[in-house]
Design a protein that fits this description.
Radius of gyration: 19 Å
GO biological process, one term: DNA repair
Number of helices: 12
CATH architecture: 3-Layer(aba) Sandwich
Low-confidence stretches: 18-40
InterPro entries: Helicase_ATP-bd, P-loop_NTPase, SNF2-like_sf, SNF2_N, SNF2_RAD54_helicase_TF
Helix content: 25-40%
CATH class: Alpha Beta
Number of strands: 10
CATH topology: Rossmann fold
Pfam family, one: SNF2-rel_dom
Strand content: 15-25%
Largest sheet: 8 strands, mixed
Distance between the termini: 32 Å
Keywords: ATP-binding, Hydrolase, Nucleotide-binding
Protein name: Helicase ATP-binding domain-containing protein
């Protein structure tokens, strides 16, 4: 049986479930949200283009499939979509912000982080060491380009298909880029939320997903709250560990079989 798991912020899941509580806010507090950024790199809020678009991030071979699905289920001109072919430079942030849906790839995110990530505070303070005249460089010597337009849009939501690629505690360029994106809502869609290996490895993997989701407090990059409240009790076989994990997952996760998704597919967008 094929199972699809969708993990998201608790407020988003509550909204989808038709629940309304005082704890569910329509918008994210950017200041608090950015406190979870592990990269120590940020884009000033005044440089962001506000958008109603959803950014969908998929494996490279699936970009064309998403393009086909949009064409199959959406009437022409009913939805403004941008399909990133990854061979060209990205449009400006204001151009991207004008779309309803933007589909891009894992390799695009990794490349954008390598060449177009925001400068760290160290790189900003020490141009004489990390830059030569007009050519600014990152601390690894890579020439620093303009900040990626993907990072200068305030997306309504970011959806990562096969989002288990964001799991783990050793950040990749893909993970760093995904974590730094500005968005009101974040989704992880996957059929394998953990690698199902050793218990401790699965817990570390799960924490990486929570960092991307910016779950509070368990998605803090330092992992202290996660380790103290869930990982340690779980590994010591204390009942509170599994209970706390189940309580968390009930708040942020939906689980569907392939058949159940087929049964609830909406009519095409016209």
């Amino acid at each position: 049986m094929h199972v699809v798991v969708c993990m998201m912020e608790a407020k988003e899941l509550a909204a989808l479930s038709g629940q309304c509580t005082r704890n569910v806010r329509a918008r994210v507090d950017n200041k608090a949200d950015n406190a979870l950024d592990t990269s120590l790199r940020s884009v000033p809020a005044e440089n962001l283009a506000s958008s109603g678009a959803s950014l969908i991030v998929v494996r490279d071979p699936l970009v064309e499939r998403w393009k086909y699905q949009i064409e199959a289920h959406v009437s022409q001109k009913a939805l403004r979509s941008f399909i990133d072919e990854t061979t060209e430079d990205l449009p400006s942030n204001f151009e991207l912000a004008a779309y309803d849906v933007v589909v891009t790839s894992f390799s695009r995110l990794a490349k954008e982080w390598k060449l177009h990530r925001p400068a760290s505070e160290l790189e900003k303070r020490m141009p004489e060491q990390y830059g030569f005249e007009d050519t600014q460089r990152y601390t690894d010597g890579t020439t620093r380009g303009e900040v990626s337009s993907l990072l200068t849009v305030h997306w309504v939501r970011v959806i990562v298909d096969e989002g288990h690629k964001l799991g783990g505690q050793t950040p990749t360029n893909l993970m760093r880029m995904a974590r730094t994106l500005f968005a009101e809502r974040r989704w992880v869609m996957t059929g394998t939320p953990t690698p199902n290996t050793l218990q401790s490895a699965d817990l570390r993997f799960m924490h990486g997903l929570l960092v991307f989701l910016r779950n509070k407090p368990y998605g803090q990059p330092d992992g202290r709250a996660w380790t103290k409240a869930i990982a340690w009790p779980f590994e010591k076989n204390e009942p509170i560990g599994p209970y706390s994990l189940q309580s968390l997952l009930r708040r942020i996760m939906m689980r569907h079989t392939k058949q159940s998704i087929r049964d609830i597919l909406p009519e095409p967008i016209r």
